[in-house]
Design goal:
37% of the residues lie in helices and 18% in strands. By secondary structure, the chain is an alpha/beta fold.
Length: 379
């Protein structure tokens, strides 16, 4: 079904907005474009007032650090890029804080690496931190942690990082602000007959072939190819992606009024994408044996409580996939463990109110939350 930017954004509860270096950094001076930061901050404040939370994924640290360290033009070695990121990250956050603070939005820095996003335990910890920041009314500003990331374990561009963040925070939309207003049938700077492709229902080889190189030389690493790759990641999680121009005043407000852009439709619904991810676990890390009452409860769409667990087998961390079986050993469901195997062994059979007494803390009342559970059979 074709959906406009307005259809997607007006009811959105949460969005992830990625902003590239070419929009934030003056290519002549290498400094921050304060007016651009201010305009985007106003947009984010307007989203907040409309009931939409925003997570920012912002490039610009390396470019700002290059200027502060007076590094020569040209490609940087990995160690010098890490040095530039370290020097520039404080300047980037200062620019965002100066822009967001007048709107009552505290800027909160979060630096993530590939390993943070692909390691389930770190992913859960990062998600919990972002959820807490949003609940506190802050504006999380995320960047790849170039200072410590190695060449082998880097996303390399913030487009794909933004898609992973959109998955992490269960966003309703991913907005990739660019120096063009979307994907074109040809390079619009060379072909006056190039047309904007407003809807992409599926990312085919033909769509991928339309991607060009990076944007403004010397300021960014992402191009249309990385944006299409990000749209694929988000789409597989059921999240639509919007590629739009970010240089105009109030680019997000314009999108809410259906400004020109390219909308990449998700491949599936968010719920089914999440459930497919859980169900696709080849080898669960552990097994929870449930009593008859717990089997009936999860079959009715309820969360698994510790009281319904008879025993725990295997070694697993919080957030890893576990098999839920009956006392006959038959597989009933798969799900993501809300507690580690050690914790689960200590609380199985207990009422929710008793968990904190035994562990000294409580991560939640559910051993496996209903949203993180996929049934294999009915009780």
């Amino acid at each position: 079904m074709t959906r406009s930017a307005a259809d997607i954004l007006k009811p959105a509860r949460r969005v992830v907005v990625k902003i590239g270096s070419s929009l934030l950094i003056d290519p002549e001076t290498g400094g921050a474009l304060a007016a651009r930061f201010a305009a985007l901050a106003g947009d984010i404040a307007a989203l907040r007032d409309a009931g939409t939370q925003t997570v920012l994924v912002s490039s610009g640290a390396v470019a700002l650090g290059r200027r502060r360290l007076k590094l020569a033009d040209g490609k940087l070695t990995l160690d010098m890029k890490q040095a530039a990121a370290a020097a520039g990250q404080t300047a980037l956050m200062q620019a965002w804080n100066n822009a967001l603070e007048p709107h009552g939005l505290p800027a909160a820095q979060a630096l993530l690496t590939w390993d943070d996003m692909e390691n389930r335990r770190r992913w859960l910890n990062a998600r919990a931190t972002l959820e807490a920041l949003l609940a506190a009314g802050a504006a999380p500003v995320i960047n790849e942690n170039d200072t410590v990331a190695t060449a082998e374990l880097r996303y390399g561009d913030n487009d794909r990082l933004a898609a992973r963040v959109a998955q992490m925070v269960d966003a309703d939309a991913l907005i990739l602000l660019s120096d063009v207003d979307g994907l074109y049938s040809a390079d619009p700077s060379r072909d006056p007959g190039a047309r904007l492709i407003t809807q992409v229902e599926a990312i085919t080889p033909e769509i991928e072939a339309l991607a060009g190189g990076a944007g403004v030389a010397g300021t960014g690493t992402g191009g249309m190819a990385s944006k299409i790759a990000a749209a694929r990641i988000a789409g597989r999680a059921g999240i639509p992606t919007l590629i739009a121009a970010g240089a105009a005043d109030q680019p997000i407000a314009r999108l809410r009024e259906s400004a020109p852009c390219t909308v990449f439709a998700p491949e599936t619904s968010r719920q089914s994408a999440r459930h497919k991810w859980i169900a696709g676990a080849v080898t669960p890390r552990g097994t929870l044996v449930l009593d008859a009452g717990a089997l009936t409860a999860i079959s009715a769409g309820k969360s698994l409580l510790a009281a319904g667990i008879k025993s725990v087998d295997g070694a697993f961390a919080r957030g890893e996939t576990v098999a839920l079986v009956g006392e006959d050993g038959a597989l009933a469901a798969k799900g993501l463990a809300g507690y580690s195997s050690d914790e689960m062994s200590r609380i199985c059979g207990l009422k929710s109110a008793e968990i904190e007494t035994v562990l000294g803390y409580r991560r939640g009342s559910a051993a496996v939350h209903a949203d993180d559970l996929v049934l294999e059979r009915k009780a």
